[in-house]
Amino acid sequence: MNVRRLIPRSALAGAVALGAVTLSACGGTSGAADKGSDGKLDVVASFYPMQYLAEQIGGAHVAVDTLTKPGVEPHDLELKPRQIGELGEADVVLYLKGIQPAVDDAIAQAGVKNTVDAATLTTLEKHGTEVGHDHGSEEAGHDHGSEAGGDPHIWLDPVKYAEVAKGVGAALEKADPDHAADYQKNTDALVKKLGDLDTAFETGLKNTATKTFVTTHSAFGYLAERYGLDQEGISGVDPESEPSPARIKEIQDIAKKDKVTTVFFETLASDKTAKTLAGDTGLKTDVLDPLEGITDKSKGDDYIEVMQSNLAALQKALGAK
């Protein structure tokens, strides 16, 4: 079984300040970056949600590389020495502190000049099901950051993701002022798309037979809170492990009480847990994608399409009217 790595308790400390982005710099200097030989801004993104922002906002003016390749579970990421060395050569590094310890450590080691921590661009919150995201590990001192700052899955809330997008746009403008107008235009366009997505979720989930959904991966706290839903995570287990008999009984009771129809699993982990639960509770299974990566199994080619698929899955499971 592939047990996911957890997040240090201190990983999110101090990462909840809301305000304009700043480019942190080693040696006390920041601002316009030295571009690559092709004249483009070299941007390294930690994983897909950061990659999508860089590509959408940067457009033709950036060359984007991602540390987490398609199909790799982001929490499990291990970086090669070469990748750590390349981090130090990037014009801008875009990451989300607290969700990938290997990236946090590598950025500190590489002495990256310009970094943008997405966790500082919106307000992080705590969610009641965070214990369900401990991935079954017993590593001392790790709890996914819930005690230090909050749930890092900000990209699954279109409103918070739009706040992050604005901060990323400001960062790229600062790093490459010659193309500031284009970055602003692209940021505005992306924020509009995210606004439309927010409206679709709000409208599509307003009237449902139930507000409760069950998931093997408790990544949807922000989404649930935004749209008045209740996320019921399979507490204290890795998504690839079997739930305890006690938890199965609890899910049975919740399913009966709240008219739950579906147990959701994700694309980058086994569906074994969901199928075990479904078999024991008479429920269906379906995908609710936490969008930590895009693969050929994803129900969509990019963030917007996959989120639309998530909306359709929730509407079906919750009995949208």
Give a concise summary:
This protein has 321 residues and is α/β, with parallel strands linked by helices. The chain has 9 helices and 8 strands. Mean pLDDT is 81; it is low at 1-30 and 129-148.
Characterise this structure:
The protein has 321 residues and is of the alpha/beta class. It contains 9 helices and 8 strands. Helix 1 packs across helix 5 and helix 5 packs parallel to helix 9. The longest helix has 25 residues, at 180-204. The radius of gyration is 20 Å and the shape is globular. Residues 1-30 and 129-148 have low confidence and may be disordered.
Helix/strand-derived category reads alpha/beta
Strand content: 5-15%
Largest β-sheet summary: 4 strands, parallel
Report the principal-axis shape.
globular
Order of secondary-structure elements: EHEHEHEHHEHEHEHEH
Low-confidence segments, given as residue ranges, are 1-30, 129-148
Q: Averaged pLDDT, please?
A: 81
First-last Cα distance = 40 Å
* Rg, Å, rounded: 20 Å
**Order of strands in the sheet with most strands:** 2-1-3-4
Strand element count: 8
Percent range for helical residues?
25-40%
Number of helices: 9
